[in-house]
Amino acid sequence: MKAITSFEQLEGYRERVKAAQKKDLPSVLICFGTGCQANGAVAVAEAFREEIERKGLKVDVNVGFKTTGCHGYCENGPLVVLRPKDVLYLKVKPKDVPEIVEKSLVGSEIIEKLVYKDVNTGESVAQYHEIPFYKYQKRIALRNIGNVDPRSIDDYLLCDGYKGLARALTMRPEDIVSEVEKSGLRGRGGGGFPTGTKWRSCRAVDSDVRYVMCNGDEGDPGAFMDRSIMEGDPHSVIEGMIIGGYAVGAKQGYIYVRDEYPLAVKNLQAALADARAMGFLGENILGSDFSFDIRISRGGGAFVCGESSALMRSLEGKVGEPRAKYIRSVEKGLYDKPSVLNNVETWNNIPVIIRNGADWYASFGTRGSKGTKVFSLVGKVNNTGLVEVPMGISIRELVEKIGGGVLNGKKFKAVQTGGPSGGCIPDSEADLPVDFDSLTQAGSMMGSGGIIVMDENTCMVDVAKYFIGFLVEESCGKCTPCRDGLPRMHRILSDITEGRGREEDIETLTELCDVLTCAALCGLGSSAANPVLSTVRYFRDEYEAHIRDGKCPAGVCKSLITYSIDAAACTGCTLCAKKCPQQCITGERKGAHVIDASACIKCGVCKDVCNFDAVRVE
Amino acid sequence: MEKITIIIDGKQVEAVKDQPVLMAARENGIDIPALCHHPELESSGGSCRVCLVEAVQGGRSRIVTSCNYPVRAGLEVNTSTDQVMKIRKGVLELLLCRVPDSEVVRGLASKYGIDEPRFFKDEGENNRYKCIACSLCTQVCEDVVGVSAISMQNRGVEKAPGTPFHKDSQACIGCGACAYACPTGAISMKDSKGVRTIWGRKFKMAACSVCGKPYIPQAQVDWIVKTTGKDRAFFDKCPDHR
Predict the structure, then answer these.
(1) In this structure, which topology does domain A461-548 adopt according to CATH?
(2) What is the structure's pLDDT at A221?
(3) Final residue belonging to a domain, choices B35, B60, B80
(4) Residue B61 has pLDDT above 80, yes or no
């Protein structure tokens, strides 16, 4: 492929790709995100290839076939989309493929057993965009994912790819910065710092060398939007970075990806090679004076390397430890040069902002938080996965409309947002708009956009203990409060959940939180108190019940609960006695059963298997 | 060196722009406790968090570590507000949990009214008995001595300096700079009968030709001669008899 050296050539090439495309070809799109691949998408794709051939059909002649990035609805994978009918099939197995090709690809029948069924209404929905999970989304960051083959630069060009770059190169760098400022875009990695302001500060520092970097070291448990973007639409990130490099005056960019994301690394590498071959990277991009290239650096798996200063040290080949940021990275960042580090999702928004304009982007979202945000909605909710919504949507809407409500009709208790150092927001605050400032005010944070839904069977002390435990493992150990404070907090929380809580524990925890918040070196340390602070703030009564009454109201903490069988409800079916691993349930057939509490290990199997709701936990 | 005036604890003091607040304070007779900062090591500090102060700049007040917070125009520093004292005390209590055997930390904590921490104490291993993981030792070894015989290992509570894989380091020259730099006396160095033992290795000491006292590891002499080109004869005499 010959490099493109002018805007005219780019548009000419795009037109040729468009013309070569057969528009209304019945097509099958198979999700090749990590989740669907793990669920067997590779075998499904192979089955489609074979079946298409067996039927004497030809790809790109009679039918379309491609593998795409992640649709976000991973728990229902492998996902198969049929175009132009816009039909989505869930949990497709290779054995379903002949029927799909016969009935739905060649024919126009819908296979009922493969379509989405609403758990609440029992209704079947076949149309992709009518499924509640998708219906209420507004996809800007995820605009191409699921539509394009991430390995095809032509596919990206068909979605107006690199138009933002072409436009940017006609603008003055400072005007691009102003445009980004005007869009109101704030850092999607969690900090929420205004992107344009960051770029402007970097430009203002006198230096020959500047760097731009992409933070792809997504490490929050349950969050996978960055992975999904890097895997499914790598060119959008690359295009954003080229524009950013031009705007701030950098010649070199780095993408720091965690090594646990092998598919993201592969797709990014392929995309970089294609972009280089087409002349979007390298010397004199699109015939301009601007030269820029990007390299990939793979992280070693430390959570702390998602922190900006630790990431830069790791990029330099040193141990990934944070440094004091009294002198900011925009002044002295990578190799002590002025540097801009933005998150994957931030970079991915840049091309559309430049292409469609700041006003367009700023028309979405709230006053302080513009645009949309991708969330990974997980936990005790009917529909889990990646969702993109305008900033300012309420937590309740997210959980009920898109998430389809709490699993098994249980009561909604709280959401945990912002990753391990985020906080929990209770049901009573669920009408809170999801934006940077509201979440921070509520004692949590946006973080990278993880949202974990919790139901009435979740113990909030146990939740706090879990997250603090995670942070104990991931603390880099450089500063005292984080390294030595978190294990002490974890010990107190363990004591509380194991029935050794003391009256002064809540007070002591709050004191330790204060030390962490005020004295820790980096953002991870100073926000690490959030899981405790927010649960104490909203669920203090639960802490007190553990400490004072020796009870776990949610029935989770094993040391504080006992299992028993309600004789009135027990039918004597003997199922629990058969399943009990301790064999500590006795009773006559058709007579009430009894649990021997001294032998019971509180595994909960009896409660799970009981069909008559006769097992009590107190 | 641009001199500017800043305010520390209500007093106007002169300081050098960009120098650490801690140094400016000390030069003006204001004491701030600190463990992990060494004036000869530019990259040191920021780890122990003992030297916390309140910095007010541009109308914004926050708790910062004075050892690496740069002096800038308009800065006002308060070294002992109630909040600073409370947080510093909290940090010292945590340090005492980590290194209950360290006389230095024990003494400092005691000044802040802590004789026994409320929390469980760490049990040290791998040189951790008195080590606060500040990394001054590894910085000296790398930046000043230039041999990088030791480095910080592990993370979280397990973080501590050591030789690679806890095996004898062939890079170590036995100079003991790490032990001198350590603020808590955590690194064991013993000189006996002309032999120095450090990091599990024994180094033969060269003796002074005048007083006969073994005073420098032979390996250190070799290193200095090799890296600086200094005349080997210079090391025939100890500093007292040169």
Answers:
(1) de novo design (two linked rop proteins) (1.20.1440)
(2) 81
(3) B80
(4) yes
Pairwise CA distance, residues A41 & A388, whole Å: 24
Q: Show the domain range for B23.
A: 3-80
Q: Which of B72, B84, B87 to mutate to test the interface with A (most CBs of A within 10 A)?
A: B87
Any B CB within 8 A of A183 CB:
no
Residues B143, B209, single domain; the answer is: yes
Alpha carbon distance A301, A287 (integer Å): 39
Let me know: does A382 contact A122? Beta carbons within 8 Å.
no
* B50, B119, B153, best to mutate vs chain A, most A CBs in 10 Å: B119
Per the CB < 8 A criterion, the answer to whether A357 and A163 are in contact is: no
Tell which of A313, A508, A518, A521 to mutate to test the B interface (max B CBs under 10 Å).
A518
With b meaning 16 or more CB within 10 Å and e meaning fewer, what string describes A490-512? bbbbbbbbeeebeeebbeebebb
CATH topology of domain A153-362: Rossmann fold (3.40.50)
State the number of CA atoms in the 13 A half-sphere of A293 facing the CB. 10
- State phi, psi for A28 to the nearest 5 degrees: -120, 130
In chain A, where are the structural domains located?
A: 8-135, 153-362, 372-458, 461-548, 562-617
Give tens-digit pLDDT for A30-50. 999 999 999 999 999 999 999
d(CA A296, CA A288) in angstroms, rounded, equals: 24
- Rounded CA-CA distance A528/A422 in Å is 8
Is B45 part of a structural domain of the chain?
A: yes
pLDDT band at B127 (very low <50, low <70, confident <90, very high): low
- Candidates B180, B207, B179, B176; CA nearest to B193 is B207
Domain A372-458 class in CATH: alpha beta
Report yes or no: A442 and A423 within 8 Å, Cβ to Cβ: yes
Q: What residue type is assigned to position B154 of the chain?
A: N
Yes or no, beta carbons of A480 and B119 under 8 Å apart: no
Closest by Cβ to A483, choosing from B70, B133, B135? B133
CA A290 to chain CA centroid, Å, is 34
Instruction: Answer yes or no: CATH 3.40.50.150 is held by domain A8-135.
Output: no
Q: What is the CATH number of the domain that holds B12?
A: 3.10.20.740
Burial status of residue A390 (CB atoms within 10 A of its CB: 0-12, 13-18, 19 or more): buried
Mean of all residue pLDDT scores within chain A: 94
Q: What is the pLDDT of residues A368-423, one digit of tens each?
A: 999 999 999 999 999 999 999 999 999 999 999 999 999 989 999 999 998 888 89
Q: Which of B32, B47, B80 is the last residue of a domain?
A: B80
* Angstrom distance (rounded) from CA A125 to CA B64: 56
B81-111 pLDDT tens trace: 999 999 999 999 999 999 998 999 999 999 9
Q: Is residue B88 part of a domain?
A: no
Q: Does the beta carbon of A476 lie under 8 angstroms from any beta carbon of chain B?
A: yes
Cross-strand partners of A390 = A372
Q: Span A562-617: which CATH code?
A: 3.30.70.20
Q: Is the pLDDT of residue A2 over 80?
A: no
Are B224 and B160 within one domain? Answer: yes
For residue B163, being part of any structural domain is answered with yes
* Interface contact flag, B91 A519, Cβ < 8 Å: yes
A513 touching chain B per CB within 8 A: no
